[in-house]
Each structure stands twice: as structure tokens, then as C-alpha cells.
Design goal:
Layout (H helix, E strand, L loop, with lengths): L1 E6 L2 E4 L4 E9 L6 E7 L6 E7 L5 E3 L7 E6 L4 E6 L8 E8 L9 E4 L3 E6 L1
Parallel strand pairs: 2-11
Antiparallel strand pairs: 1-3, 3-8, 4-5, 4-9, 5-6, 7-8, 9-10, 9-11
């Protein structure tokens, strides 16, 4: 079992930055890595980025590529999402989740955090 807790969300102006954290505990060694998803009101949950604990492989959705950076600190069992050049369309609840392999579908993520709100004002 894996537990995940997100933090770092908040209100930021267009063009600003935020860094989200995903603190994992439990049997992370039995997982591949962590992905970030977001869901805005009235929209489906959207894949944002993922990273592998062991190999550091990262992958991004086109909508955030070049603006967001995912990283991990294995010693802290923590994954970060650095979000730069934020836009109003980035406004959503951001959640992290563990996965057994490189997937972009939320169906392949087994454990989820509670989510953290990111709001980008115009």
C-alpha cells in the first residue's frame, strides 16, 4: 500500500509559479513512479506528468511541456511539480498518484492523494 499527500497549491497570477509536492509513504519500492493529474470544474481528469522513482524517466502532457518540470527526491519519497508561466487554464485540483509503469491513463494509477487546489487568476 502507498499513501500520498499533496501540498503547495494556492492562488497565483498569470505568469507566476508554484511548486507542488507529493509526499509518498508505504511500499513505494513496489511501484514504478508517480504521476500528476488535474481536474478542472466541468472537465475530465487530465494527465499532467509522471516520473519513475528508479530511472527518473519523465513524461509530460503537451499542454504543460516546457512550462512544468517534474522531479523526485528518493531520500524523501517526494515528487515535485514545478509549474512556471502559469495560465488561467491551469486552474484545477492537482492530484498525485502511484503507478506500476509508464501510463498516462488514470486507470493505471492505484493510489491517490487528496488533491491540492491551484488557481491562476487573469
Amino acid at each position: 500500500q502507498v499513501q500520498l499527500v499533496e501540498s503547495g497549491g494556492g492562488l497565483v497570477q498569470t505568469g507566476g509559479s508554484l511548486r507542488l509536492s507529493c509526499a509518498a509513504s508505504g511500499r513505494t519500492s513496489r511501484t514504478y513512479g508517480v504521476g500528476w493529474f488535474r481536474q478542472a470544474p466541468g472537465k475530465e481528469r487530465e494527465f499532467v506528468a509522471l516520473i519513475g522513482w528508479g530511472d527518473g524517466f519523465s513524461y509530460y502532457a503537451d499542454s504543460v511541456k516546457g512550462r512544468f518540470t517534474i522531479s523526485r527526491d528518493n531520500a524523501k519519497n517526494t515528487v515535485y511539480l514545478q509549474m512556471n508561466s502559469l495560465k488561467p487554464e491551469d486552474t484545477a485540483v492537482y492530484s498525485c498518484a502511484s503507478t506500476r509503469a509508464v501510463y498516462t491513463s488514470s486507470a493505471y494509477y492505484d493510489y491517490w492523494g487528496q488533491g491540492t487546489q491551484v488557481t491562476v487568476s487573469s
